[in-house]
Structure to design on (310 residues):
């Protein structure tokens, strides 16, 4: 019988599908060396964002046929090495779209109404209504960087809340932007005219530190920036300095250059930053969607059927 290793926590719905065709071992929290030591036993590997499938792991993976990432990106997999070794890499491009979009929207509203700090204040025994005067998003400008699946949903909801939507995405047509009620602009205009900026682009060589001291300096003094896409798209040092000096209204981050977030100056900032531990895809619905989507692809490959590669 084929053997599948599940090395991050994935929904039971996926495990059930895999168990129909394979022996499934769930071993989470493995170090690179531990994973490298056991990977030769396995025909398939199922992961989320926690497991780093490095070149070293792949070199040792002599029986591996498929790696399935129960999520959107495959940036924690050394895809080039996998391809060289004939290992298929698959993912779930749509299973957590709504979850990630809703997390970004929740971040926007949490920033505008100071919800995390007001909550902490009440739980701390206070009844302070003066410190938490918010601002409405209605009639404000939302700048969406990346008008793909998640960015489009955020734009539609923003529009429904009465926001004006600017978008920057060099790969999207004017026609598509018009359909979504967005005005396509260049990144500088988006940064200088938006009240809220939300990032929905992949992390690539082109987008690493795309948002840096220069772009942050273009933001309006009250504007806020949200990153529920990938760590490393915003230069964290530049963001820290910008927030510390009070040059922008705030930031909300779900993703970090290095995860899990270790010691970081970002943790020292006050109520102008909201930090969540990569929760964008963490809804019950999304976890079922991505687990089923990826488990079905792994099952098919183990049964000798063609794969849909990431
Ligand atoms: P998508 O592929 O549908 O959309 C990405 C968009 O970014 C595309 O329209 C593309 O044209 C655009 N883009 C690419 N390079 C760009 C650039 N240099 N400048 C501007 N636009 C650029 O992807 P998606 O499903 O919408 O996901 C967006 C991001 O969200 C990905 O990085 C994904 O990994 C991340 N994500 C995070 C979580 C989370 O848990 N926080 C969950 C799901 C997805
Ligand atoms: C994804 O790419 O789908 C997300 O980062 C979610 C995750 O892996 O938890």
């Amino acid at each position: 019988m084929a053997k599948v290793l599940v090395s991050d926590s994935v929904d039971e719905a996926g495990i059930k599908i895999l168990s129909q065709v394979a022996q499934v071992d769930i071993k989470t929290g493995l170090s690179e060396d531990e994973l490298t030591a056991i990977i030769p036993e396995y025909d398939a590997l199922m992961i989320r964002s926690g497991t780093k499938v490095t070149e070293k792991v792949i070199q040792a993976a002599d029986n591996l046929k498929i790696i399935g990432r129960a999520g959107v990106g495959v940036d924690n997999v050394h895809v080039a090495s996998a391809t060289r070794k004939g290992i298929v890499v698959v993912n779930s491009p749509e299973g957590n779209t709504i979850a990630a979009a809703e997390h970004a929207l929740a971040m926007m509203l949490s920033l505008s109404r100071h919800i995390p700090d007001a909550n902490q204040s009440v739980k701390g025994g206070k009844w302070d209504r003066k410190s938490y005067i918010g601002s409405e998003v209605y009639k404000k400008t939302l700048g969406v960087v990346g008008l793909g699946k998640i960015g489009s949903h955020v734009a539609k909801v923003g529009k429904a809340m009465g926001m004006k939507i600017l978008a920057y995405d060099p790969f999207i047509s004017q026609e598509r932007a018009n359909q979504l009620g967005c005005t396509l602009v260049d990144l500088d205009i988006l940064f200088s005219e938006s009240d809220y900026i939300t990032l929905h682009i992949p992390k690539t060589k082109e987008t690493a530190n795309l948002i840096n001291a220069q772009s942050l300096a273009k933001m309006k003094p009250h504007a806020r920036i949200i990153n529920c896409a990938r760590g490393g798209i915003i230069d964290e040092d530049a963001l820290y300095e910008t927030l510390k000096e009070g040059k922008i209204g705030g930031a909300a981050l779900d993703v970090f250059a290095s995860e899990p977030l270790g010691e970081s100056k970002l943790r020292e900032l006050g109520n102008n930053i909201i930090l969540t531990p990569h929760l964008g895809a963490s809804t019950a619905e999304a976890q079922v969607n991505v687990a089923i989507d990826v488990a079905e692809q792994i099952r098919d490959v183990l049964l000798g059927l063609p794969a849909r590669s990431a």
The mean pLDDT is 97.
